[in-house]
Design a protein that fits this description.
single chain; alpha/beta; Rossmann fold; 11 strands; binds nicotinamide-adenine-dinucleotide
Length: about 425
């Protein structure tokens, strides 16, 4: 389809900037708009001293990035991971802006991260770190400024600690400060599984577009945490055969279909299950297994020019953020693989986070059916607008998604007189 090639040595932020530039140019915006949107408006770096259980003090580095607030307050998750970098957080914040743009949510993108190894920290140390992070960023965030949520290695318990800390600082109950909370603290029904529900809808739409039946299809999922775990379960319940799953330590493969309920029962709170088995395969092997649908649901840069040619799936749906490099996107698209990019596929999380925030603000809570109905409607519309743009412009789905995602934010910047 395209002759353009991309270096594989570019980090996620540089790759994102290249596509934003191309999308803005195709939409007819000038270089000033690109200068504004290529980086977040604000990035705060914080150092958080935490008393560890053994009495020593450890100082952690964290970030909070706010990409653009022309459309509304910024919104995005907080990641606890040893490989968090400032550039990664910036790219994740930009992707959040694009997701909100595609889904039509009244937000810009934000993201946070702390460089830490939560798998080696105690429950109480993680609580102190969560609270310390909120104290460090409290001036920058709030229910009408920037609204955090869970991401890799954080969950509803971390959100509860963070909401409690913020409410104490502000001296009033602030459920709308953060989403992904437990139900009793103002969480939304359906939020836990929302990302995977959205990915499931994206898979259904992609299968329709390819004329492929979901029942009986063979699915591989890399990552078995919140996104990957629920997704494997939903695929299994829809009659697909989940032939491979993996976590940070390795993968499991059965061409006749894995017993997903059994594996979910044995998974730990960090989404690890493979350690319990012998004869595991590697995370690289999992990506090239014989299957119809491949769902990367773990971390960035997993599908690259090194393995793209060996991938056998006909549909790739990015539950993770940034799992496929630009060069691999081009190689796969040229081969006719339908790749549904992260900023459409995993938007279910932010869509239901938005519903949670709306419910918190109005103090009126919805049924799960109401949440699911609205999620389905937004996901189908998002898919259709990006798919149509890709067809009409003869471009890959990623560039099409960036075009749909960036347009409203760019227009809002113009109308505010920023550019
Ligand atoms: P999680 O912490 O619940 O699970 C992460 C999973 O990835 C675990 O199974 C872990 O073992 C695995 N993993 C970690 N490092 C790995 C590695 N190096 N190789 C292979 N597997 C590895 O996280 P999650 O919330 O499921 O997020 C997964 C992806 O989905 C991330 O890219 C995240 O940004 C994206 N996402 C999540 C949400 C959400 O609501 N949870 C929303 C949108 C996007």
């Amino acid at each position: 389809m395209s002759v353009q090639t991309y270096s594989e040595n570019l980090n996620v932020l540089t790759q994102t900037q290249l596509v934003i530039k191309e999308a803005l140019a195709k939409l007819g915006f000038g270089s000033e708009m690109y200068e504004l949107l290529k980086e977040p408006l604000r990035v705060l770096t914080v150092r958080i001293p935490i008393r560890m259980d053994d009495g020593t003090v450890k100082v952690f580095t964290g970030y909070r990035a706010q990409h653009n607030d022309a459309v509304g307050p910024t919104k995005g998750g907080i990641r606890f991971h040893p490989e968090v970098t400032e550039d990664e957080v910036k790219a994740l914040a930009i992707w959040m802006s694009l997701k909100c743009g595609i889904a039509g949510l009244p937000y810009g993108g934000g993201k946070g991260g702390i460089i830490c190894e939560p798998r080696e920290m105690s429950f109480r140390e993680l609580e102190r770190l969560s609270r310390g992070y909120v104290r460090a960023i409290s001036q920058l965030v709030g229910p009408t400024k920037d609204i955090p949520a869970p991401d890799v290695y954080t969950n509803s318990q971390y959100m509860a600690w963070m909401m409690d800390e913020y409410s104490r600082i502000r001296e009033y109950d602030s459920p709308g400060f953060i989403t992904g909370k437990p139900l009793v603290l103002g969480g939304s029904l359906g939020r836990d599984s929302a990302t995977a529900r959205g990915v499931t809808i994206a898979i259904e739409e992609a299968a329709k577009a390819k004329g492929m039946a979901l029942a009986g299809s063979r699915v591989v999922v890399q990552g078995f945490g919140n996104a990957g775990g629920y997704l494997a379960k939903f695929m299994h319940d829809k009659g697909a055969l989940v032939v491979g799953i993996s976590d940070a330590y390795g993968g499991l493969h059965d061409p006749n279909g894995l017993d997903i309920d059994y594996l979910l029962d044995r998974r730990d709170s960090f989404g690890t299950v493979s350690k319990l088995f012998k004869n595991t395969i590697t995370n690289q092997d999992i990506l090239t297994l014989d299957c119809d649908i491949l769902v990367p649901a773990a971390i960035e840069n997993q599908i690259t020019s090194q393995n793209a040619a060996a991938i056998k799936a006909k549909i790739i749906v990015e539950a993770a953020n940034g799992p496929t490099t630009l060069q691999a996107t081009r190689m796969l698209t040229d081969r006719g693989v339908l790749l549904i990019p992260d900023i459409i596929a995993n938007a279910g999380g932010v869509i239901v986070s938005y519903f949670e925030w709306v419910q918190n603000n109005q103090g009126l809570y919805w049924t799960e059916q109401e949440v699911d109905r609205r999620l389905q409607e937004i996901m189908e519309q998002s898919f259709a607008s990006v798919y149509e743009t890709a067809k009409l412009r003869k471009i890959d789905m990623r560039l099409a998604a960036y075009m749909v995602g960036v347009r409203r934010m760019a227009e809002a910047c113009q109308l505010r007189g920023w550019v």
